[in-house]
Specification:
Structural class: mainly alpha
Mean pLDDT: 82
Strand content: under 5%
Largest sheet: none
Number of domains: 2
Radius of gyration: 26 Å
């Protein structure tokens, strides 16, 4: 499409447009994109592909849930769990795990 316009001496510009801000052209594009994913006969969605990033997020979330469940059942590591009860909260801190850190948290330092 862009190539056809260029051959007709049109100049095409691409730029960022804020979504859901009432900009008519953007609202039309959103509606057309949604309509393209639906079966025109019964209104059901026909687009069944899931982005890789969504799958990666789902796998990561499931892994964190399993890790948390195992951690809560563990006999050892109570002092670490008292400082960091949730695995995902601990990972967000991005604290480097050094021997000194481990000794302090485990009470062996």
């Amino acid at each position: 499409m862009v190539r056809n316009l260029t051959q007709q001496n049109w100049t095409t510009y691409f730029g960022w447009v804020k979504a859901h801000a009432g900009i008519e052209g953007n609202e039309v594009a959103d509606r057309l994109a949604k309509d393209a994913t639906q079966d025109q006969k019964d209104g059901t969605y026909v687009y069944d592909r899931i982005p890789i990033s969504t799958i990666a997020s789902m796998v990561k979330e499931e892994g964190l849930k399993k890790w948390q469940a195992q951690r809560e059942k563990a006999v050892n590591g109570a002092s670490c769990r008292s400082c960091f009860p949730k695995v995902d909260q601990r990972l967000k801190l991005r604290i480097p795990i050094t021997p000194e850190f481990t000794a302090i948290i485990s009470g062996h330092g």
